[in-house]
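Researcher: Next sequence.
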Amino acid sequence: MRKFITLNNALVVGSMVALGLVVNIITPKSSEIVVIDMQKAINQPVTMLTKSNMAEATKQVIIKRYSSLLPRVIRAYGHKNHLTVISTPVLASGNKADITNIIIEQTLNEVKRNA
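Model: Next structure:
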């Protein structure tokens, strides 16, 4: 009788472990949440261009290109890094949760590549 109980317990424990493995495989992993300050992401490059010596028509072309690439760069960055990206004003930044400067840099690099 004692062997039956031990075997029964082993089957129960084995089933629970197998179920845990299946649930772990099926359940999607949570993603880290990061923020982007869209106002800064748009205004900072525009301010930089305003101060440059480029022709006004050239500035407008670059701003238009930047604006069209910005959402794609944000989506690509979030997808590549398995992140949930939220747009919100950032009042203070001191950690990696604020990706605004990274996105600005990557978008400007895309503008240069597509020029």
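Model: Confidence is low (pLDDT under 50) at residues 13-27. Helices lie at 2-26, 38-50, 56-80, 100-113.
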